[in-house]
Design a protein that fits this description.
Number of strands: 8
Oligomer: single chain
Helix content: 40-55%
Bound molecules: NADP nicotinamide-adenine-dinucleotide phosphate
CATH architecture of the largest domain: 3-Layer(aba) Sandwich
Strand content: 5-15%
Structural class: alpha/beta
Strand order of the largest sheet: 3-2-1-4-5-6-7-8
CATH class of the largest domain: Alpha Beta
Low-confidence stretches: none
Order of helices and strands: HHHHEHEHEHEHEHEHHHEEH
Radius of gyration: 19 Å
Shape: globular
CATH superfamily of the largest domain: NAD(P)-binding Rossmann-like Domain
Number of domains: 2
Distance between the termini: 52 Å
């Protein structure tokens, strides 16, 4: 070990801990840049290899998802994505296919299906088409997300933040669980947000009403619910070889954040991460040796992180995760009590 390596290894743990405590340091570009130079998860990590793996990602037409799709294709994955606009999907397909081709992989391996996560009927149709057209699914990435500025409900009466970011990913996972299981070891990755730290897990206040609606609060609660559901899936899918990971990307310069939090985005300016930096832990979770990743955990910058940090933001009850699971399954119109014994997509 050189003197530099010794210094790096001595600094890695303390610097990571200081960043974690500072929160802003951790979420910003500074956190990524320090950790990627110091932590062995970066400095000793092999190049990701995803050749021949089937990856399905939502929200690939913009920001973090686009960056993730490009990097997945560059490392050999056959990238399929869910998009709600045919025009943006086609533009993304071309962009990702060029990268796959340049890296020596089949550009025709990049494909998409159209669905709007705000509509469960649309998700069901998408999942059925995907399951009938593919014989395996190695990685499913729930990345799509948004802060809705105003209160809106879908045709089933669900508030849109909850419909698109809690119930829809649950339904998609449920419908593709059979494929994931037969492709084991496989994994499901959920892109949450550090904003969830501000909210406890409380089913009774997950859905805001028109009167008390605030986009940022609705979003943070939905992101909290995503992480709780990922842990519930992990518990139920034990022994199937399907692993569940949730992560947060930090503060990332994307069209989404510029649109929904313009002042924050302007103030943070150069401290925001690049989309590639935001996507980094997604790629790492998608490609790392499965034996190194315990299922049901929450990750940021390639390390396991606590799920709760603020004393007031805790689960409303010990069985709140179970209650959330039951409620979400009911909203999705599925009987998930039998998972993983049943094989819903087969
Ligand atoms: N940027 C950050 O600082 C930050 C921080 C924490 C967490 N995140 C999370 O990271 C993920 C990606 O965010 P981003 O910042 O990259 O946002 P973005 O640039 O707005 O991209 C969001 C993606 O999600 C898609 N999408 C949104 N609603 C959808 C729906 N109902 N159905 C289908 N697709 C939908 C969008 O499709 P269209 O192109 O059709 O709009 C787009 O591809 C989100 O889950 C977000 O919550 C981001």
């Amino acid at each position: 070990m050189t003197g530099y390596d010794g210094l790096r290894s001595a600094l890695a743990g303390p610097v990571d801990r200081v960043l974690e405590v500072s929160l802003g340091g951790s979420f910003s570009r500074l956190g990524y840049e320090a950790r990627s130079r110091l932590l062995p998860e970066y400095t000793e990590a092999p190049e990701p290899t995803l050749a021949g793996r089937n990856v399905l990602i939502t929200g690939a037409t913009s920001g973090i998802g686009l960056s993730a799709a490009i990097r997945l294709a560059r490392h050999g994955a056959r990238v399929h994505f869910l998009a709600r606009s045919k025009q943006r999907a086609e533009r993304t397909r071309r962009q990702v296919a060029v990268v796959a081709g340049r890296a020596g992989y089949d550009p025709d391996g990049v494909s998409y299906g159209i669905a709007d996560l705000d509509s469960l009927a649309s998700v069901r149709e998408f999942a059925a088409a995907f399951a009938s057209g593919h014989d395996r699914l190695d990685v499913l990435i729930h990345n799509a997300g948004a802060i809705h500025p105003g209160y809106q409900r879908n045709s089933a009466g669900l508030e849109l933040t909850v419909a698109g970011q809690v119930v829809a990913p649950f339904l998609l996972t449920y419908q593709l669980f059979g494929l994931l299981r037969q492709s084991a070891p496989s994994r499901v990755i959920t892109v949450s947000s550090g904003g969830m730290y501000t909210q406890g897990l409380d089913l009774s206040s997950l859905q805001l009403t028109a009167a008390d609606y605030q986009g940022v609060t609705a979003y943070a609660r939905a992101k909290r619910a995503q992480v709780a559901l990922s842990a519930q899936w992990a518990k139920r899918a034990g022994g199937t070889g399907v692993a569940f990971h949730a992560m947060h990307p930090g503060w990332v310069r994307t069209p989404g954040i510029a649109r929904s939090l313009p002042t924050f985005s302007r103030l943070l300016g150069p401290l925001l991460r690049t989309p590639d930096q935001g996507a980094d832990t997604i790629i790492w979770l998608a490609s790392a040796d499965p034996d190194r990743l315990s299922t049901g955990r929450f990750w940021h910058d390639r390390r396991r992180r606590p799920v709760y940090r603020i004393p007031g933001a805790r689960p409303a009850a010990l069985d709140e995760g179970q209650r959330l699971w039951d409620w979400t399954a009911e909203q999705a119109g599925v009987d998930a009590s039998q998972l993983p014994m049943s094989d819903p997509s087969r």
